[in-house]
Amino acid sequence: MSVLIELSPLETLFWVLTGRGDQILWTEADVREHYRQKRLRGQSSTGKTVKKAEPKQRQTLQTKIADKELLRISLKKTNIPFTENNSRFTCRAGNSDITIAKTKNGNYEFRIVGDGNLAPVQNLYNKLGAEYERQVQQKVCNNIKEKVSMNKAMKIEQEEVLEDNSIVITISV
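Given the sequence above, the corresponding structure tokens read:
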């Protein structure tokens, strides 16, 4: 692997004029040896650093999310900044870029590109999943209420939210 050392214009000119312009591109071993030699000669480093590029890691998380509108509502309700383009949602968690895209099986998946630290991504995934479940539950309850209200032989007697956030609707027939 080769890395490029950042040289000042004067240093670059010196290397080129001394016929060593082809040596500006060094391997990591060359860089270590260069700075080792500088330390041995008692020269101080110019503060220039060579940073090795971290490879981006790609991972995928499957979800049970299938409804685009409920996904959009869930992203908004959880205050996750996102953009939407062609039925794909993009957002960030930690140092990772996340694309939420629909798969062939009809569910959405998280396509993650980042530094490999999945803790912030998992936190976002859990937060969004919990809100999506609440939205699905609310949609189901609204559908039941609507169908009951359309049938004159039925009436909602009671609606109760239990400790586990499940909802019990009692309908008289």
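The chain has four helices and nine strands. Try to locate this feature in the token string yourself.
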